[in-house]
Amino acid sequence: MQNDFFPFSASPRPRVPASFSLSASARPRVSASSRRSGFTLIEILAVVVILGIASAVILPEMSSRNDQRVASAARTLMADLLYAQSRSIAYQTRHYVQFNAATNSWQVMVDSGSGSPGSVITHPVNGTSYVETVGTGALTNVAITSVSFDGNTTISFDQMGVPYSWSAAGGNVAMLSGSVVFTAGTNKMTVSVSPYSGEITTH
C-alpha cells in the first residue's frame, strides 16, 4: 500500500509597498493636556500657604477658645517658614523671615544680593506684600512672646534649605537653635526650627 505524501508549502508573505505610510490624520495624537501631568513646586508651595491661611481663619471661627487661636497662629507661621525654605531651594536664592514681636508680625523677604534681607516678596494668595500679623481679627488675643534664632529675630534659608540666624552685625551664621513662642491667654504654642536639617515642628 502506497502512502501519498503532500508537502506543505509556506504561503508567501504579503508585501507592504515601500511607499505605504500612515497619514498624519491616522497617527495617534497626544493632546496638550495629557503632556502636562502633576504640579510644579511653586503650585505646591502656594497650596501649603493657602492651607495655613485657612487654618488661621476657619478654626478660630469654629471656636472662640484661645487654644484654637494660638494653634492657628502656629500653623500659619509653620506654613510661611516652609514656603520661605522651599522658595530658597526652588529659586536657589536665600530667603528670610524677619520678626517684630512689638507689632506681633513677621515678613518674608528675598536676599538683597549681598547676604542681607532685601525686598518683601509678594504673597502668592492675595498678591500683597508677604506680611503676617497676629493679635487682630480671627487671631485676636494671640501675641508673639518670644523670638530667638540664636538670639536674633531673623532666620534665613540657603539654597539647600539649611537654616541660618541673621543679624546686621554678624550676617548669616549657621543656626544652632531657633523658636517662636505664641501665647493667647494661658495657652502657649512653640514653633521650632531644627539646625542643619531645617525641620519645622510645633509643640
Describe the structure.
It is a single chain. A hairpin with a 3-residue loop joins strand 7 and strand 8. The strands form two sheets. Strands 1, 2, 3, 4, 6, 7 and 8 form a seven-stranded antiparallel β-sheet that branches. The protein has a four-stranded antiparallel β-sheet with strand order 5-9-10-11, with helices on one face. The protein is built from three helices and eleven strands. The chain is globular and about 40 Å long. The chain is of the alpha+beta class. It has one domain: minor pseudopilin epsh fold, CATH 3.55.40. The longest helix is centred in the middle third of the chain and has 26 residues.
Characterize this entry briefly.
By secondary structure, this protein is α+β, with helices and mostly antiparallel strands. Helix 2 runs antiparallel to helix 3 (66-91). It has 3 helices and 11 strands; from the N terminus they run H-H-H-E-E-E-E-E-E-E-E-E-E-E.
Query: How many helices?
Result: 3
Share in β-strands: 25-35%
Distance between the termini: 100 Å
Helix content: 25-40%
- SS-based structural class? alpha+beta
CATH topology: minor pseudopilin epsh fold
According to DSSP, the number of beta strands is 11
Q: Helix and strand layout, with pairings?
A:
Elements: H1 32-35, H2 41-62, H3 66-91, E1 95-100, E2 105-111, E3 117-120, E4 131-133, E5 142-149, E6 154-157, E7 163-167, E8 171-174, E9 178-184, E10 187-193, E11 200-202
Antiparallel strand pairs: 1-2, 1-6, 2-3, 2-4, 5-9, 6-7, 7-8, 9-10, 10-11
Helix pairs in contact: 2-3
